[in-house]
Design a protein that fits this description.
This protein has 124 residues and is of the alpha+beta class. It has two helices and six strands, in the order ββββααββ. The protein has one domain. Helices cover 29% and strands 32% of the residues. This is Cytoplasmic protein.
Length: 124
């Protein structure tokens, strides 16, 4: 049986996992998002750590490519200082994933010789 709700009115917020979002930007390079854990009444929940993520974009021959990733930090200052490395790591993961997809697609290329082979009893 699926954990997915059958109708939209069955969707419930996880009240033990609420966060307030704060955004910071330098208006040039990118932005940092801070998710501050909160209680149901909106007050800060100091029993859980805040989380930071960064976003920027790089230009490619096909236009801008958005990059985003988690920044390991406890404070905004640490997040700002960790931003460059976090974006570098996110870019490396994105490039690695793109190369993996290219390799998978290359393995799916059909050659003329493949078309001459018997394909499940049907010769093409």
């Amino acid at each position: 049986m699926s954990d997915q709700p059958e109708k939209i009115s069955d969707v419930k917020m996880d009240v033990a996992n609420l966060y307030r979002e704060e955004s910071y930007t330098d208006l040039k390079t990118g932005g940092i998002r801070k998710l501050v854990p909160v209680k149901l009444d909106g007050s800060d929940d100091d029993s859980r750590p805040a989380t930071f993520s960064g976003h920027t974009q790089v230009m490619s021959p096909h236009g801008p490519i958005p990059i985003q990733g988690v920044i390991e930090a406890a404070t905004l200052e640490e997040a700002v200082n960790g931003f460059p490395q976090a974006m570098e790591d996110a870019m490396a993961r994105m490039v690695e994933e793109a190369q993996k997809l290219q390799r998978e697609q290359a393995n799916k290329i059909v050659t003329p010789d493949d078309l001459k082979k018997d394909n499940g009893g049907i010769i093409i």
